[in-house]
Amino acid sequence: MIRFLTKMVAGAALVAMAAGGAALAQPAKPECLAGAKPGGGFDLTCRLAANALLVTKQISQPMAVTYMEGGVGAVAYNHVIAKRPKDGNLITAASSGSALLIAQGKFGQYDENAVRWLGALGADYGVLVVNADSPYKTLKDLVDAYKADPSSFAIAGGGAVGSQDWMKASLLAKAAGQEPKQMHYAALEGGGAVLTALEGGHVQVGSGDAAEMVKHHVAGKIRILAVMAPQRLTGALADVPTAHEQGFDIDWPIWRGYYVGKDVSDADFDWWVKAFEAASKTPEFAKEREERGLFEFTMVGKPFEERVKADVVRFKQLAKEAGM
Predict the structure, then answer these.
(1) Domain containing 24: what range?
(2) Which of these, 34, 40, 152, 176, has the minimum number of CB atoms within 10 Å of its CB?
(3) How many whole angstroms separate alpha carbon 224 and alpha carbon 216?
(4) Cα 240 to the center of its chain, rounded Å
(5) Contacts for 280-289 with beta carbons within 8 Å, 24 or more apart?
(6) pTM (predicted TM-score)
(7) Which of helix, strand or coil describes residue 208?
(8) How far apart are CA 147 and CA 22, in angstroms?
(9) What is the domain count for the chain?
(10) Exposed e or buried b for every residue in 24-44, given b needs 16+ CB within 10 A?
């Protein structure tokens, strides 16, 4: 009996120590690093985490948001790896665009295995758009016209050759049986410039994101022909069919997520995973996500790590097929 009681006490002590260790893993100075200037997608991603974790009481003090521009996240990526690989206080914003750049070797010597991928808390989706007065009413109309005369199409995107918008446009070219590297692509400075070019009739097609195009679609200034999502989006875009519905195998989810340093402890990593999971199940989080124009897409821990690595493989193949 004494031996049994001793084991029980020892077991209870271990449970208490484990619980205490989990509690201590909460970051003392939570921080989110955005790898660009304030106001962009990385900033939005950091603000989502900062606000959602605070309002859902996963953190007890406000999260600092810091900025480190350069290389569309490359400078921040290298900084975390070289300078803060063990910092359990720090999460860094990332997106599917980060995976695309890693796949193209644009993050320097480091690949997708140089950090720990924490999770995604929202997503946007690629769209193909035309002017409101365009004769093309469906994605099939556009694909057929592009197939017949690709040289007559100017396609605008908010990024250079090899960017996400360029890649989305390349999927249109592939659907039409044409070489992506032969596209007449206009690399513009962001979605606003794409909209201006479309509305002014300077380009025939725009490649962009649902969140930045939806207001203009609703206002009747442009027409979204297809959403690159596995199923129809809700809200204002519920009437827009997916590319799949129209017979084209085109997907382009743009997840918004986070990573931590490679040497962050398992206790710290697991704390962040559990905090993300708990926050994402609340109505307060849903409100924060929707206010930022993002759609539901929560994936944390091991599944997210696998998703990122699968994306890198997919992007490498797409880049190869596009002749890059």
Answers:
(1) 2-122+254-321
(2) 152
(3) 9
(4) 21
(5) 280/52, 280/121, 282/56, 284/52, 284/55, 284/56, 285/52, 285/55, 285/56, 285/121, 288/48, 288/51, 288/52, 288/55, 289/48, 289/52, 289/121, 289/122
(6) 0.81
(7) strand
(8) 58
(9) 2
(10) ebbbeebbbbbbbeeebbbbb
Task: Give the N- to C-terminal CA distance of the chain in Å, as an integer.
Answer: 73
Q: Determine the Cα–Cα distance for residues 267 and 21; give it in Å rounded to an integer.
A: 8
What does each of the 324 residues of the chain score in pLDDT, given as a tens digit? 444 444 444 444 444 333 333 344 789 999 999 998 888 889 999 999 999 999 999 999 999 999 999 888 999 999 999 999 999 999 999 999 999 999 999 999 999 999 999 999 999 999 999 999 999 999 999 999 999 999 888 999 988 888 899 999 999 999 999 988 889 999 987 788 889 999 888 999 999 999 888 889 999 999 999 999 999 998 889 999 999 999 999 989 999 999 999 999 999 999 999 999 999 999 999 999 999 989 999 999 999 999 999 999 999 988 887 777
Rounded CA-CA distance 105/170 in Å is 19
Give one word for 234, left, alpha or beta, with left for phi > 0 and alpha for psi -120 to 50. Answer: beta
| Residue 248 one-letter amino acid | F
Q: Are residues 104 and 133 in the same domain?
A: no
Amino acid (1-letter code) at residue 8: M
Does residue 183 share a domain with residue 154? yes
